[in-house]
């Protein structure tokens, strides 16, 4: 299978789906917001429609592959391939009219990503990778060369659910605020990872994320020369709900996370 052809087809599909999402954002009616399991975990017909469009096209791009997608599509594949999809990452932003949201699609082969595409809708920025490297709108990208935490800009996110780990997480944030140029919270983990991959940010950390938030972004970041791990430094970051991702400050970030997380 020529994965660069698959990558190109997924990029085209994302561009089309982004047109739909952008169009809906222009006249979105807040009455159409639905709650999932808690008042702060939201969804709308735009997420669901976007997923439908993506799934039906991907079935043609790669017949027989399985699916895991945020808005409910779960299908066991007939071969070793599986798509992991977030049809709209940054839903809360979208619903409030904040123009920071993306589509995230990863193709897994035997549970390892082989293609990743993140499409940032508002600026038409398509971050994409195969094992041949990572690109932004077809231009090669690399992580930031900065290796000193004091020169770094980070991103994080805050989980929808306030778990017993909240205080440890706030301690990590406090320490990073004291030792870096700052922390951003864009509201889309896919965009956070894509920005680390192209060197706009030096690092990103978050917990309680799902596979659809991170499968494409972590692959793109690794192909751009970055390092990703769970909070223990291990490899369980796609399904493990803990993620530390960076260019050249990964070890320093992990040390600070470790000092607070298991207390
Ligand atoms: C969310 C975003 C956000 C992160 C949340 C995710 P959604 O995804 O990626 O940045 O902090 O944990 O659930 O709900 O907008 O697809
Ligand atoms: Ca998401
Ligand atoms: Ca989503």
Structural notes for this entry:
The protein folds into two domains: 3-140, Fructose-1,6-Bisphosphatase, Chain A, domain 1 (2-Layer Sandwich); 149-260, D-Maltodextrin-Binding Protein, domain 2 (3-Layer(aba) Sandwich). The strands form three sheets. Strands 4-3-5-6-7-8-9-10 form an eight-stranded mixed beta sheet, with helices on both faces. It has a five-stranded mixed beta sheet with strand order 12-11-13-15-14, sandwiched between helices. It has a two-stranded antiparallel sheet with strand order 1-2. The model has no long low-confidence stretch (mean pLDDT 95). It contains seven helices and 15 strands. The protein is globular, with a radius of gyration of 18 Å. It has 263 residues and is an alpha+beta fold. It has helices at residues 3-26, 45-61, 91-96, 166-179, 189-197, 211-223, 250-261; strands at 34-35, 42-43, 66-69, 74-75, 81-89, 102-109, 112-120, 125-130, 133-136, 139-140, 153-156, 182-184, 203-207, 227-229, 242-246. The structure holds D-MYO-inositol-1-phosphate and calcium ion (2 copies). One calcium ion (CA) binds at residues 86, 89, 213. One calcium ion (CA) is lined by residues 86, 89, 213.
Detail the topology: elements first, then pairings.
Layout: H1 3-26, E1 34-35, E2 42-43, H2 45-61, E3 66-69, E4 74-75, E5 81-89, H3 91-96, E6 102-109, E7 112-120, E8 125-130, E9 133-136, E10 139-140, E11 153-156, H4 166-179, E12 182-184, H5 189-197, E13 203-207, H6 211-223, E14 227-229, E15 242-246, H7 250-261
Helix pairs in contact: 1-2, 4-7, 5-6
The protein binds D-MYO-inositol-1-phosphate and calcium ion (CA) (2 copies).
Residues 86, 89, 213 line the site of one calcium ion.
